[in-house]
């Protein structure tokens, strides 16, 4: 089983809680003895995960950043669904998906995973090329959501979107020049929200494959929102509509 490094209290604690058997060992800052560290050590010891003492420099060298919060874990891949057909076949009720086209910043990806988890989205889908992978930085920013929300990468995004259409999933693209706003869109049934990068938006073919385009209305002086903020607004509008329809 392929291993990777995850870091930060939220990400490591979430992995221990969700799938402790996948955690091989945890490196902790030997200079930290605060309550938060003590709680993490107790959680690791309870599931018999090996703890290795290290200094700040060694932790930074392991993952290439000093933003590790004093904790780094070596862990195997999660058993979350990584195949789209497998995922869709297991969903009970109307699917709610988030499609990210051209997101290259791991901080944006991590934040998108976090709001997807909060809104109850079933998965985040992205192309393998021209997009950031689920690296350690994205997992840390996700604050545990990388352990709970399947992140599925596909070779051909437009083809995948057409496959979703064949499953009667409504593709709702977001763009600032859409005639309808999100409040005029219908998110109550099987739906996939399609978000483009903050600078360039959706690629042409991605946009043309959508069933409908909507915009997030802007009432202030700024012209656009960060993709994770916009994703959160749209996903929670979808959740609001689904609750109202029950």
Secondary-structure blueprint:
Blueprint: E1 3-7, H1 9-19, E2 23-29, H2 35-46, E3 50-54, H3 56-63, E4 71-76, H4 84-90, E5 96-101, H5 106-119, E6 123-127, H6 136-141, E7 151-154, H7 157-166, E8 170-174, E9 180-181, E10 191-196, H8 204-209, E11 212-215, H9 227-245
Parallel strand pairs: 2-3, 5-6, 5-10, 6-7, 8-10, 8-11, 9-11
Antiparallel strand pairs: 1-4, 2-4
Helix pairs in contact: 5-9
Describe the protein.
With 246 residues, the protein is an alpha/beta fold. The chain contains nine helices and eleven strands. The protein has helices at residues 9-19, 35-46, 56-63, 84-90, 106-119, 136-141, 157-166, 204-209, 227-245, and strands at residues 3-7, 23-29, 50-54, 71-76, 96-101, 123-127, 151-154, 170-174, 180-181, 191-196, 212-215. It has a seven-stranded parallel beta sheet, with helices on both faces. It has a four-stranded mixed beta sheet with strand order 1-4-2-3. Helix 2 links the parallel strand 2 and strand 3. The longest helix has 19 residues, at 227-245. It is elongated, with a radius of gyration of 19 Å. It starts with a strand and ends with a helix. The mean pLDDT is 90.
Query: What percent of residues are in strands?
Result: 15-25%
Alpha-carbon distance between the two ends: 42 Å
Mind describing the biggest β-sheet? 7 strands, parallel
Order of helices and strands: EHEHEHEHEHEHEHEEEHEH
Question: Residue share in helices?
Answer: 25-40%
Helix vs. strand class? alpha/beta
Strand tally: 11
Shape estimate: elongated
The strand order across the widest sheet is 7-6-5-10-8-11-9
Task: Name the poorly predicted regions.
Answer: none
């Amino acid at each position: 089983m392929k291993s990777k490094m995850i870091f930060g209290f939220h990400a490591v604690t979430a992995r221990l809680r969700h799938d402790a058997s996948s955690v091989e060992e945890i490196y902790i800052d030997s200079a930290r003895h605060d309550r938060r560290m003590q709680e993490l050590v107790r959680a690791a010891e309870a599931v018999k995960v090996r703890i290795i003492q290290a200094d700040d420099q060694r932790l930074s060298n392991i993952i290439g950043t000093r933003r590790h919060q004093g904790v780094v874990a070596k862990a195997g891949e999660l058993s979350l669904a990584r195949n789209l057909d497998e995922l869709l076949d297991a969903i009970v009720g109307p699917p709610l998906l988030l499609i990210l086209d051209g997101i290259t910043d791991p901080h944006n990806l991590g934040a998108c995973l976090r709001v997807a988890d909060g809104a109850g989205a079933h998965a985040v889908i992205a192309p393998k090329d021209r997009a950031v992978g689920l690296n350690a930085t994205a997992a840390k920013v996700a604050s545990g959501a990388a352990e709970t929300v399947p992140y599925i990468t596909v070779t051909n995004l437009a083809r995948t979107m057409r496959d979703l259409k064949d499953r009667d999933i409504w593709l709702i693209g977001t763009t600032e020049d859409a005639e309808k706003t999100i409040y005029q869109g219908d998110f109550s049934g099987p739906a996939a929200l399609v978000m483009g990068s903050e600078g360039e938006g959706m690629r042409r073919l991605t946009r043309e494959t959508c069933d409908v385009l909507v915009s997030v209305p802007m009432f202030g002086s700024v012209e656009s929102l960060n993709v994770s903020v916009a994703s959160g607004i749209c996903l929670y509008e979808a959740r609001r509509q689904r609750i109202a329809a029950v």
